[in-house]
Specification:
Helix content is about 40%, strand content about 20%. It is an alpha/beta fold.
Length: about 375
Protein backbone atom coordinates (compact mmCIF):
# COMPACT_ATOMS: atom_id res chain seq x y z
CA UNK A 1 0.00 0.00 0.00
CA UNK A 2 2.83 2.37 0.89
CA UNK A 3 4.48 1.84 -2.49
CA UNK A 4 1.23 2.82 -4.25
CA UNK A 5 1.04 6.02 -2.21
CA UNK A 6 4.59 6.93 -3.19
CA UNK A 7 3.87 6.38 -6.90
CA UNK A 8 0.65 8.40 -6.73
CA UNK A 9 2.47 11.21 -4.93
CA UNK A 10 5.18 11.15 -7.59
CA UNK A 11 2.63 11.45 -10.39
CA UNK A 12 0.71 14.23 -8.68
CA UNK A 13 3.84 16.25 -7.98
CA UNK A 14 5.13 15.78 -11.50
CA UNK A 15 1.86 16.99 -12.96
CA UNK A 16 1.59 19.89 -10.52
CA UNK A 17 5.12 21.05 -11.32
CA UNK A 18 4.37 21.15 -15.01
CA UNK A 19 1.02 22.86 -14.49
CA UNK A 20 2.91 25.62 -12.72
CA UNK A 21 5.36 25.95 -15.61
CA UNK A 22 3.99 29.06 -17.33
CA UNK A 23 5.88 31.67 -19.28
CA UNK A 24 5.58 34.38 -16.65
CA UNK A 25 8.88 36.26 -16.87
CA UNK A 26 8.71 37.12 -13.18
CA UNK A 27 8.74 33.48 -12.19
CA UNK A 28 11.83 31.56 -11.12
CA UNK A 29 11.95 28.56 -13.40
CA UNK A 30 14.21 25.80 -12.05
CA UNK A 31 14.96 22.59 -13.87
CA UNK A 32 15.55 19.31 -12.08
CA UNK A 33 17.76 16.52 -13.43
CA UNK A 34 17.27 13.33 -11.43
CA UNK A 35 16.99 9.58 -12.12
CA UNK A 36 13.24 8.92 -12.32
CA UNK A 37 13.80 5.58 -14.04
CA UNK A 38 16.21 2.70 -13.65
CA UNK A 39 18.16 1.51 -10.64
CA UNK A 40 18.14 4.85 -8.79
CA UNK A 41 14.57 5.95 -9.50
CA UNK A 42 13.72 5.94 -5.78
CA UNK A 43 16.46 8.49 -5.24
CA UNK A 44 14.98 10.67 -7.98
CA UNK A 45 11.55 10.53 -6.39
CA UNK A 46 13.04 11.32 -2.99
CA UNK A 47 14.83 14.37 -4.41
CA UNK A 48 11.63 15.65 -5.96
CA UNK A 49 9.74 15.19 -2.70
CA UNK A 50 12.44 17.21 -0.91
CA UNK A 51 11.92 20.05 -3.37
CA UNK A 52 8.19 19.99 -2.61
CA UNK A 53 9.05 20.49 1.06
CA UNK A 54 11.33 23.38 0.10
CA UNK A 55 8.60 24.95 -2.02
CA UNK A 56 6.15 24.71 0.87
CA UNK A 57 8.60 26.43 3.20
CA UNK A 58 9.58 29.19 0.76
CA UNK A 59 5.88 29.75 0.03
CA UNK A 60 6.29 31.76 -3.17
CA UNK A 61 4.08 30.88 -6.13
CA UNK A 62 6.61 32.46 -8.48
CA UNK A 63 8.88 29.41 -8.23
CA UNK A 64 8.27 26.80 -10.90
CA UNK A 65 10.00 23.40 -11.02
CA UNK A 66 10.54 21.47 -14.27
CA UNK A 67 11.59 17.86 -13.51
CA UNK A 68 13.32 15.73 -16.13
CA UNK A 69 14.51 12.14 -16.05
CA UNK A 70 18.30 12.16 -16.50
CA UNK A 71 18.80 8.47 -15.75
CA UNK A 72 22.09 7.49 -14.12
CA UNK A 73 25.35 7.42 -16.05
CA UNK A 74 23.27 7.70 -19.21
CA UNK A 75 24.81 10.57 -21.27
CA UNK A 76 22.26 10.31 -24.08
CA UNK A 77 19.26 10.59 -21.77
CA UNK A 78 20.96 13.37 -19.79
CA UNK A 79 21.59 15.50 -22.88
CA UNK A 80 18.03 14.97 -24.12
CA UNK A 81 16.70 16.14 -20.76
CA UNK A 82 18.95 19.22 -20.69
CA UNK A 83 17.93 20.14 -24.23
CA UNK A 84 14.30 19.76 -23.20
CA UNK A 85 14.86 22.21 -20.33
CA UNK A 86 16.65 24.63 -22.64
CA UNK A 87 13.64 24.59 -24.96
CA UNK A 88 11.58 25.75 -21.98
CA UNK A 89 14.02 28.67 -21.61
CA UNK A 90 15.21 27.37 -18.25
CA UNK A 91 18.58 28.77 -17.17
CA UNK A 92 19.04 27.27 -13.68
CA UNK A 93 19.00 23.52 -13.03
CA UNK A 94 19.34 21.39 -9.89
CA UNK A 95 21.42 18.37 -10.86
CA UNK A 96 22.81 16.16 -12.14
CA UNK A 97 23.59 14.12 -9.03
CA UNK A 98 26.81 12.52 -10.33
CA UNK A 99 30.04 14.38 -11.12
CA UNK A 100 30.61 11.87 -13.90
CA UNK A 101 27.90 13.69 -15.88
CA UNK A 102 29.65 17.05 -15.72
CA UNK A 103 31.56 16.59 -18.99
CA UNK A 104 28.26 16.29 -20.83
CA UNK A 105 27.23 19.75 -19.60
CA UNK A 106 30.22 21.67 -20.94
CA UNK A 107 28.41 22.66 -24.15
CA UNK A 108 25.45 24.19 -22.31
CA UNK A 109 27.24 27.42 -21.43
CA UNK A 110 23.99 29.41 -21.27
CA UNK A 111 22.71 27.29 -18.35
CA UNK A 112 23.66 26.99 -14.65
CA UNK A 113 23.79 23.62 -12.91
CA UNK A 114 23.66 23.27 -9.10
CA UNK A 115 24.73 19.70 -8.31
CA UNK A 116 24.56 17.87 -4.95
CA UNK A 117 27.82 16.12 -5.85
CA UNK A 118 30.62 16.42 -3.28
CA UNK A 119 33.57 15.37 -5.45
CA UNK A 120 34.85 18.80 -6.49
CA UNK A 121 33.82 22.00 -4.66
CA UNK A 122 35.64 24.19 -7.19
CA UNK A 123 33.29 26.32 -9.26
CA UNK A 124 33.41 25.28 -12.89
CA UNK A 125 32.35 27.37 -15.86
CA UNK A 126 28.66 26.56 -15.44
CA UNK A 127 28.53 24.07 -12.54
CA UNK A 128 28.41 24.57 -8.77
CA UNK A 129 28.67 21.52 -6.50
CA UNK A 130 27.00 21.96 -3.10
CA UNK A 131 27.77 18.55 -1.56
CA UNK A 132 29.76 18.13 1.65
CA UNK A 133 33.18 17.93 0.03
CA UNK A 134 36.25 16.25 1.42
CA UNK A 135 37.93 19.68 1.32
CA UNK A 136 35.31 21.06 3.73
CA UNK A 137 35.73 18.06 6.02
CA UNK A 138 39.51 18.29 5.95
CA UNK A 139 39.38 21.97 6.90
CA UNK A 140 37.24 21.20 9.97
CA UNK A 141 39.40 18.22 10.97
CA UNK A 142 42.57 20.28 10.54
CA UNK A 143 41.25 22.94 12.92
CA UNK A 144 40.16 20.23 15.38
CA UNK A 145 43.59 18.55 15.38
CA UNK A 146 45.34 21.88 15.96
CA UNK A 147 42.92 22.89 18.71
CA UNK A 148 43.69 19.65 20.53
CA UNK A 149 47.44 20.32 20.13
CA UNK A 150 48.26 17.04 18.41
CA UNK A 151 51.80 16.81 17.09
CA UNK A 152 51.97 13.49 15.22
CA UNK A 153 49.07 12.61 12.93
CA UNK A 154 48.50 9.53 10.80
CA UNK A 155 46.16 10.01 7.81
CA UNK A 156 44.75 6.61 6.88
CA UNK A 157 42.69 5.48 3.91
CA UNK A 158 42.18 2.25 1.95
CA UNK A 159 43.73 1.23 -1.34
CA UNK A 160 40.71 1.26 -3.63
CA UNK A 161 39.20 3.13 -6.59
CA UNK A 162 39.08 6.37 -4.57
CA UNK A 163 42.74 6.32 -3.52
CA UNK A 164 43.95 8.62 -6.29
CA UNK A 165 41.17 11.12 -5.56
CA UNK A 166 42.03 11.17 -1.84
CA UNK A 167 45.72 11.53 -2.69
CA UNK A 168 44.93 14.75 -4.55
CA UNK A 169 42.80 16.14 -1.72
CA UNK A 170 45.04 15.56 1.28
CA UNK A 171 47.95 17.51 -0.17
CA UNK A 172 46.23 20.63 1.12
CA UNK A 173 46.16 19.46 4.75
CA UNK A 174 48.21 21.88 6.82
CA UNK A 175 49.12 19.68 9.79
CA UNK A 176 52.65 19.38 11.13
CA UNK A 177 54.30 15.95 11.24
CA UNK A 178 51.61 14.17 9.26
CA UNK A 179 52.20 10.78 7.71
CA UNK A 180 50.15 8.91 5.12
CA UNK A 181 49.24 5.27 5.70
CA UNK A 182 47.34 3.33 3.02
CA UNK A 183 45.90 0.01 4.08
CA UNK A 184 44.46 -2.96 2.24
CA UNK A 185 40.71 -3.02 1.63
CA UNK A 186 40.87 -6.77 2.29
CA UNK A 187 39.90 -7.35 5.97
CA UNK A 188 42.22 -10.37 6.11
CA UNK A 189 45.21 -8.18 5.28
CA UNK A 190 44.02 -5.11 7.16
CA UNK A 191 44.89 -6.44 10.62
CA UNK A 192 48.48 -7.03 9.57
CA UNK A 193 48.67 -3.51 8.10
CA UNK A 194 47.46 -1.97 11.38
CA UNK A 195 49.90 -4.13 13.37
CA UNK A 196 52.76 -2.67 11.31
CA UNK A 197 51.46 0.86 11.82
CA UNK A 198 51.24 0.43 15.59
CA UNK A 199 54.43 -1.65 15.96
CA UNK A 200 52.19 -4.17 17.70
CA UNK A 201 54.50 -7.20 17.63
CA UNK A 202 57.39 -5.36 19.26
CA UNK A 203 55.11 -3.87 21.91
CA UNK A 204 53.74 -7.37 22.51
CA UNK A 205 57.28 -8.70 22.97
CA UNK A 206 57.96 -5.86 25.39
CA UNK A 207 55.03 -7.04 27.50
CA UNK A 208 56.15 -10.68 27.49
CA UNK A 209 59.70 -9.71 28.48
CA UNK A 210 58.53 -7.48 31.30
CA UNK A 211 56.17 -10.13 32.65
CA UNK A 212 59.01 -12.68 32.79
CA UNK A 213 61.14 -10.23 34.80
CA UNK A 214 58.36 -9.48 37.26
CA UNK A 215 57.48 -13.15 37.74
CA UNK A 216 60.94 -13.71 39.17
CA UNK A 217 60.47 -11.02 41.79
CA UNK A 218 58.61 -11.33 45.06
CA UNK A 219 58.24 -7.76 46.29
CA UNK A 220 54.82 -6.10 46.55
CA UNK A 221 55.55 -3.45 43.92
CA UNK A 222 56.43 -6.10 41.35
CA UNK A 223 53.33 -8.13 42.20
CA UNK A 224 51.16 -5.03 41.79
CA UNK A 225 52.72 -4.17 38.42
CA UNK A 226 52.36 -7.76 37.25
CA UNK A 227 48.67 -7.69 38.12
CA UNK A 228 48.24 -4.49 36.10
CA UNK A 229 50.07 -5.96 33.10
CA UNK A 230 47.70 -8.94 33.09
CA UNK A 231 45.03 -6.50 31.87
CA UNK A 232 47.16 -5.33 28.94
CA UNK A 233 48.14 -6.70 25.54
CA UNK A 234 51.26 -4.60 24.98
CA UNK A 235 53.72 -2.22 26.62
CA UNK A 236 54.75 1.05 25.01
CA UNK A 237 53.08 3.89 23.17
CA UNK A 238 52.42 4.14 19.45
CA UNK A 239 54.35 6.71 17.45
CA UNK A 240 51.40 9.07 16.88
CA UNK A 241 48.85 10.99 18.94
CA UNK A 242 46.02 11.35 16.40
CA UNK A 243 44.55 9.34 13.55
CA UNK A 244 42.41 10.58 10.66
CA UNK A 245 40.57 7.71 8.95
CA UNK A 246 39.07 8.48 5.54
CA UNK A 247 36.71 5.55 5.22
CA UNK A 248 33.08 4.45 5.63
CA UNK A 249 30.77 1.59 6.53
CA UNK A 250 32.08 -1.86 7.38
CA UNK A 251 35.56 -0.95 6.20
CA UNK A 252 35.74 1.87 8.75
CA UNK A 253 34.46 -0.41 11.49
CA UNK A 254 37.16 -2.96 10.62
CA UNK A 255 39.82 -0.28 10.99
CA UNK A 256 38.44 0.83 14.35
CA UNK A 257 38.37 -2.79 15.57
CA UNK A 258 41.95 -3.32 14.41
CA UNK A 259 43.14 -0.20 16.25
CA UNK A 260 41.59 -1.50 19.46
CA UNK A 261 43.01 -4.98 18.86
CA UNK A 262 46.44 -3.41 18.39
CA UNK A 263 46.07 -1.87 21.84
CA UNK A 264 46.00 1.79 20.79
CA UNK A 265 45.36 3.81 23.95
CA UNK A 266 42.22 5.85 23.29
CA UNK A 267 43.09 8.17 26.16
CA UNK A 268 46.30 9.10 24.37
CA UNK A 269 45.31 8.93 20.71
CA UNK A 270 42.58 11.09 19.14
CA UNK A 271 40.58 9.03 16.62
CA UNK A 272 38.89 11.09 13.88
CA UNK A 273 37.05 10.10 10.73
CA UNK A 274 35.15 11.87 7.95
CA UNK A 275 31.43 12.70 7.71
CA UNK A 276 29.30 9.64 8.51
CA UNK A 277 25.91 11.38 8.20
CA UNK A 278 25.02 10.32 11.77
CA UNK A 279 24.91 6.65 10.83
CA UNK A 280 23.66 4.85 13.94
CA UNK A 281 25.17 1.55 12.84
CA UNK A 282 28.50 2.96 13.96
CA UNK A 283 27.23 2.49 17.53
CA UNK A 284 27.76 -1.23 16.99
CA UNK A 285 31.49 -0.53 17.06
CA UNK A 286 31.35 -0.25 20.85
CA UNK A 287 35.06 -0.91 21.36
CA UNK A 288 35.81 2.70 20.45
CA UNK A 289 34.95 4.97 23.37
CA UNK A 290 35.17 8.27 21.52
CA UNK A 291 35.10 8.80 17.77
CA UNK A 292 35.06 12.28 16.24
CA UNK A 293 33.99 13.50 12.81
CA UNK A 294 32.82 16.67 11.03
CA UNK A 295 29.27 16.89 9.75
CA UNK A 296 26.32 19.10 8.94
CA UNK A 297 24.15 20.65 11.63
CA UNK A 298 22.67 17.67 13.51
CA UNK A 299 19.59 19.46 14.88
CA UNK A 300 18.55 20.79 11.48
CA UNK A 301 19.28 17.42 9.88
CA UNK A 302 17.01 15.67 12.40
CA UNK A 303 14.27 18.29 11.93
CA UNK A 304 14.43 17.85 8.18
CA UNK A 305 14.30 14.05 8.39
CA UNK A 306 11.38 14.17 10.83
CA UNK A 307 9.47 16.61 8.64
CA UNK A 308 10.08 14.53 5.54
CA UNK A 309 9.01 11.33 7.32
CA UNK A 310 5.89 12.94 8.81
CA UNK A 311 4.74 14.29 5.43
CA UNK A 312 5.59 11.31 3.21
CA UNK A 313 5.89 8.37 5.61
CA UNK A 314 9.34 7.64 4.17
CA UNK A 315 12.97 7.99 5.19
CA UNK A 316 14.89 10.52 3.08
CA UNK A 317 18.35 9.86 1.68
CA UNK A 318 21.13 12.24 2.70
CA UNK A 319 21.35 13.72 -0.79
CA UNK A 320 17.83 15.12 -0.52
CA UNK A 321 18.74 17.69 2.14
CA UNK A 322 21.39 18.96 -0.28
CA UNK A 323 18.84 19.46 -3.06
CA UNK A 324 16.48 21.01 -0.51
CA UNK A 325 19.18 23.56 0.34
CA UNK A 326 20.05 24.00 -3.34
CA UNK A 327 16.59 25.35 -4.09
CA UNK A 328 16.88 27.71 -1.13
CA UNK A 329 20.22 28.96 -2.42
CA UNK A 330 18.82 29.53 -5.90
CA UNK A 331 15.86 31.46 -4.49
CA UNK A 332 18.16 33.56 -2.28
CA UNK A 333 20.48 34.50 -5.17
CA UNK A 334 17.53 35.16 -7.46
CA UNK A 335 16.12 37.70 -5.02
CA UNK A 336 19.52 39.20 -4.21
CA UNK A 337 20.19 39.76 -7.92
CA UNK A 338 16.82 41.46 -8.44
CA UNK A 339 15.37 38.32 -9.96
CA UNK A 340 17.86 38.30 -12.80
CA UNK A 341 20.46 35.52 -12.56
CA UNK A 342 22.60 35.38 -15.68
CA UNK A 343 25.69 33.29 -14.87
CA UNK A 344 27.39 31.08 -12.28
CA UNK A 345 29.23 34.20 -11.07
CA UNK A 346 25.98 35.44 -9.53
CA UNK A 347 26.25 32.61 -6.99
CA UNK A 348 29.71 33.64 -5.78
CA UNK A 349 28.66 35.72 -2.78
CA UNK A 350 31.07 37.18 -0.24
CA UNK A 351 28.63 36.72 2.64
CA UNK A 352 28.21 33.51 4.62
CA UNK A 353 25.13 31.66 3.44
CA UNK A 354 23.08 29.65 5.90
CA UNK A 355 21.09 26.60 4.89
CA UNK A 356 19.54 23.61 6.61
CA UNK A 357 22.81 21.70 6.61
CA UNK A 358 24.76 24.65 8.02
CA UNK A 359 26.74 27.66 6.82
CA UNK A 360 28.95 27.83 3.76
CA UNK A 361 30.96 30.42 1.86
CA UNK A 362 33.24 30.72 -1.13
CA UNK A 363 37.00 30.50 -0.61
CA UNK A 364 39.45 30.68 -3.52
CA UNK A 365 36.75 29.76 -6.00
CA UNK A 366 35.50 26.81 -3.94
CA UNK A 367 32.31 26.29 -1.97
CA UNK A 368 33.38 25.37 1.56
CA UNK A 369 30.91 24.07 4.14
CA UNK A 370 31.49 25.19 7.73
CA UNK A 371 30.99 21.90 9.53
CA UNK A 372 30.60 21.10 13.21
CA UNK A 373 32.66 18.43 14.95
CA UNK A 374 30.67 15.65 16.60
CA UNK A 375 31.67 12.96 19.06
CA UNK A 376 30.18 9.47 18.92
CA UNK A 377 30.03 8.34 22.54
CA UNK A 378 27.62 6.23 24.62
CA UNK A 379 25.37 5.73 21.58
CA UNK A 380 24.92 9.47 21.13
CA UNK A 381 26.05 12.14 18.69
CA UNK A 382 27.39 15.00 20.75
CA UNK A 383 28.36 18.37 19.26
CA UNK A 384 31.92 18.98 20.35
Amino acid sequence: MLKKIVIITYILLFNNFNLFADENKKSLKVGLLAPFSGEYKDMGQSIMLSLQLALNEINDDNIKIFPRDSGFNDPKKLIQSVESLREENIKIVIGPISHQDFKSLSTFKDMIFISPSNINPKIQSNILSVGVSLESQIKSIEEFIKKNKRKKTIIMYPKNKYTTLIDSKINSINILNKKIFKYSADPKILTGDIEKLTNYKQRKRNLVSRVKVLEEKDDEASKLELKELEQKYTIGKVNFDSVIIIDFGDSLKSVLTSLVYSDVDQNEVLIVTVNQWFDKSIFLENSIKNLYYPSVDFKNFKKYKNKYSNVYGLEPTEITILTYDALGLIYYVWNKKNRNVTSIKDFIIKDNIKGKIGTFNFVDGKLIQKLNMYKVSDKKFIKF
